[in-house]
Amino acid sequence: MISTKLRSLLTVLALFAAASANAQSGKRIVEQSDFDVKLGFIHVGSGQWTVLAYDTVDNHQTFHAMLTINGGFGPAKVDDHFESWGDATSWRVSRDVFSRRFVENHHELRYQKNVRFEISPERGEWTRNDGLTQRIPAEKPLDELTMLVFIRSLPLRVGDTYTIPRYFKADGNPVVLRVLRRETVTVPAGTFQTVVVQPIIKTSGLFGDGGEAEVYLTDDRFHSLVQLKSKVARIGSLTLQLKRYHPPSVTDDPRGSESAEMPAFGFDPVAEASPLPAKRPLQ
Fold first, then answer.
1. Which segments of 109-243 does DSSP mark as H helices, in order?
2. To the nearest whole number, what is the mean pLDDT of the chain?
3. For 53-57, what is the mean pLDDT?
4. How far is 223 from 258, CA to CA, in rounded Å?
5. pLDDT digits (tens, 9 = 90+) for 125-135
6. pLDDT digits (tens, 9 = 90+) for 196-227
7. What pLDDT is stored for residue 64 in this prediction?
8. Is 190 left (phi over 0), alpha (psi -120 to 50) or beta?
9. Do the domain assignments include residue 281?
10. Going by DSSP bridges, is the β-strand pair 99-108/111-120 parallel, antiparallel, or unpaired?
């Protein structure tokens, strides 16, 4: 059995190696969260959310966001990896994030899916790695990860429902976001006041229609991810719980140290995300 001191040393060395690799590639960590992963009530692995600056896609500067989920026991294993390249100008200046590239790799039981989408708002189309090309239904398209960033920018008042017609694939629109409730939750990183939202995209995946996903965000202007619950068709109930958090620095937050009432990353809601009349939150 590895001692606690040795485990801590290995963790520090791993983080140092990751930081060195990012520095050598010219990137730096903007935001990073580590998660415990559970299937049902059993701890089975780990997950990580990371945002790096900067990368280049189609001659445009981008932020590079990644979400990884690894774990399982017996045949019930999951190894999912999502990557998104969000336009840096929209992310930092106009406060209206949109996607330029999206990668989705699923390895769940015997199911595998590995796809890459090059997304060009300028040409109004996306191209998949197998050559399939289709039109983008919005000027500022979002994928699953940039959608999560965008959701963090909204006021998130309990009882509100938003329609967001900006998913990059037409058949996934409109994305519906329900703000369900406020809830105090305890995770390995501590106890947090959260606001619980339910995003529904008309596709398969973490936020797919029927997936019953619930996302727990800190009830402050950052709306940082604390917990995510989702029902995955081939696996069952999947839960991510925050273990460690490296927040964005003031220089990576357009509003810096301004009022705590401002939304996450300084984004403001935009016209494309239209609040509907308040509805009773789903139970």
1. 144-152
2. 79
3. 93
4. 15
5. 999 999 999 99
6. 999 988 876 566 555 578 999 999 988 999 99
7. 96
8. left
9. no
10. antiparallel
pLDDT score recorded for residue 161: 96
Structural domain tally of the chain? 1
Kindly state whether residue 259 falls inside one of the protein's structural domains: yes
Give the tokens for residue 48. 């990580």
Task: Give residue 174's domain range.
Answer: 4-276
The answer to the question of residue 283 being in a domain is no
238: left (phi over 0), alpha (psi -120 to 50) or beta: beta
Q: Percentage of residues in the chain with pLDDT exceeding 70?
A: 70
Alpha-carbon separation of residue 120 from 51, 79, 99, 107, 169 (angstroms): 21, 28, 8, 27, 12
Is residue 16 domain-resident?
Answer: yes
